[in-house]
Specification:
Blueprint: E1 9-14, H1 21-37, E2 43-44, H2 52-64, E3 69-74, H3 80-90, E4 94-99, H4 114-127, E5 139-140, H5 142-163, E6 165-171, H6 185-189, E7 193-198, H7 199-208, H8 215-226, H9 236-253, E8 259-264, H10 269-274, H11 279-287, E9 292-293, H12 298-311, E10 316-322, H13 326-333, E11 344-349, E12 362-365, H14 367-373, E13 383-389, E14 393-402, E15 408-418, E16 427-432, H15 436-445, E17 452-457, H16 461-470, E18 475-478
Parallel strand pairs: 1-2, 1-3, 3-4, 4-5, 6-7, 6-8, 8-9, 13-16, 15-18
Antiparallel strand pairs: 10-11, 10-17, 11-16, 12-13, 14-15, 14-17, 15-16
Length: about 500
């Protein structure tokens, strides 16, 4: 991944001055040893905070070590004022954890009471208006706390990425997809910069790259990636020209941002003017860690970036698209899996899913566009989709969205892609999410989400949920199990 941050952790221990400072020192050393034994890298800050001057000294050590994320470790009760002052002045993603008492022998005189200190720390954080990552149960042994740090890494990585992110869009958004036309003010409040451009800007840049000497090299790379799936090699020159255009635009317009995502117009005028479908290029950039959303879906692009940062792997953006036919369900799903018919659906998009996420990626043409734009002739301007069934396995379906009231909302739902042949076109898979029928009605419909959802491959729900809460998203919905009713769910249904 070329477009996501590297987290450089530092750990700072704290000690209330009426407790033995040696306790925090010993426990910090044990924590660092446990984390490094798991393969993690972390800077051990020598200063232990007992007062405000210690906080400033620890801050200088963090900066000198190049740290961009902080583990605040309550080795004992801790001084809530100085320790939270450090968090405030550090200004980077921070987690707060506390040491458990090791055994009964320490209770006689070396008891740390960090279990209690965590309460004071959380209160002081609230007074300062600070949001820190606090694990579900934030008190543990050295080994348990090391596991907590591992869980903090993807959260910190994502928060760092979002604060230095620019979304470059080429619009306007299609009239028939007003759902993608969401208010962008909440993204600016997160520190995300947005540069909106015209399709004409992109078209002019594309034409300026005609006969670019890099085109043959990119074509060769595309052909090597597609292999036997390179069924339409004649379209590769245009696609290579477009890929170079986008990459050059990113570098020329990155500005102060470290990370960039794209939200691009991809129909209907795109095909008649550019002469191809851009899906395959979108898939290639997304595979590198530069998500490109369809239909100028700015929140979709940001959601994909969140998934990329969390998993450090490629993601995709799909329509929550169609039901699974009854005959397919009865023959291929019901006898083998514990899912109801309403738990399954098909996630689809024209061809933007990275080839590594398809069982067999093949270069094709967009069937629906072909019917409308060039019927009764060999596909030409509708070529450029990467099609195939999505690889089976665990997935997390999620989205960050600005709603019509300009408030951030989100959903996160874990499930899987089933190893069931889709018998359809596009990049598509049979998805199964427990209680999807109720989730569809009482979250996706009731809360007015658009049809696009980001897909992270693997069980990433815990980290993504934590990211959303750290961003200040008050309502993060999920697929609630049976017996746990949604707010507007009919109790007699």
């Amino acid at each position: 991944m070329v477009n996501i941050p590297e987290v450089k952790l530092g750990v700072v221990a704290v000690s209330r001055d009426c407790f033995p400072i040696e306790l925090s020192h010993r426990r910090r050393q044990a924590l660092v040893s446990a984390y490094r034994a798991k393969g993690g890298e972390i800077a051990e800050i020598e200063t232990i905070i007992e007062n405000e001057k210690d906080a400033l000294k620890a801050l200088d050590e963090l900066k000198a070590a190049g740290c961009n994320a902080l583990v605040l470790f309550l080795g004992n009760f801790g001084p809530e004022g100085p320790e939270t002052m450090l968090v405030e002045k550090f200004g980077m993603p921070t987690m707060v954890i506390a040491a458990a008492e090791e055994d009964t022998a320490v209770l006689s005189s070396d008891r740390g009471d960090a279990f209690c200190g965590m309460l004071n720390a959380s209160y002081s954080l609230k007074l300062r208006g600070l949001t820190c990552y606090i694990p579900e149960y934030p008190v543990g042994t050295a080994s348990e706390c090391a596991d907590m740090i591992e869980e903090f890494l993807p959260v910190a990585r994502t928060l760092l990425g979002l604060r230095d992110l620019k979304v470059i869009s080429f619009g306007p958004r299609p009239y028939d997809f007003l759902a993608c036309n969401a208010p962008i003010a909440p993204l600016f409040k997160l520190g995300i910069n947005i540069q909106e451009n015209s399709e004409l800007d992109l078209f002019a840049a594309f034409n300026a790259h005609k006969d670019d000497p890099r085109i043959p090299e990119v074509m060769a790379d595309m052909a090597a990636e597609l292999g036997d799936g390179n069924k339409m090699p004649g379209i590769l020159p245009r696609l290579a020209q477009y890929e170079i255009t986008l990459l050059d635009w990113i570098e020329e317009n990155r500005g102060a941002a470290k990370y960039v995502v794209l939200a691009n117009k991809c129909w209907p005028a795109f095909q008649t003017q550019f002469g191809f479908v851009p899906c395959y290029v979108n898939s290639r950039l997304t595979a590198r860690g530069i998500p490109v959303s369809c239909e100028v879906d700015i929140y979709g692009a940001v959601s994909e970036f969140i998934g990329t940062c969390v998993t450090q792997a490629s993601v995709t953006l799909l329509d929550i698209n169609n039901t699974v036919p009854s005959d397919m369900y009865k023959s291929a799903i019901e006898p083998h899996y514990n899912y109801t018919h309403k738990d399954v659906f098909m996630g689809f998009h024209c061809g933007n899913t990275p080839i590594c996420r398809l069982t067999k990626g093949t270069m094709k043409y967009q069937l629906i566009m072909h019917r409308g734009l060039e019927p009764d002739k060999e596909p030409d301007i509708t070529r450029g989709t990467l099609e195939g069934d999505i690889v089976p396995g665990d997935i997390t379906f999620f989205r960050l969205q600005g709603n019509s009231d300009s408030q951030l909302v989100s959903y996160v739902a874990q499930g899987e892609v089933l190893p069931v042949k889709t018998c359809s076109f596009g990049g598509i898979g049979v998805f199964a999410i427990p209680e999807m029928g109720r989730f569809y009605r009482h979250v996706l419909i009731a809360d007015h989400y658009p049809h696009h959802g980001a897909v992270a491959f693997g069980k990433a729900g815990k980290a993504i949920f934590s990211v959303m809460k750290m961003l200040g998203v008050e309502k993060v919905s999920f697929n609630q199990p049976k017996g746990m009713m949604y707010k507007d769910e009919n109790p007699y249904a």
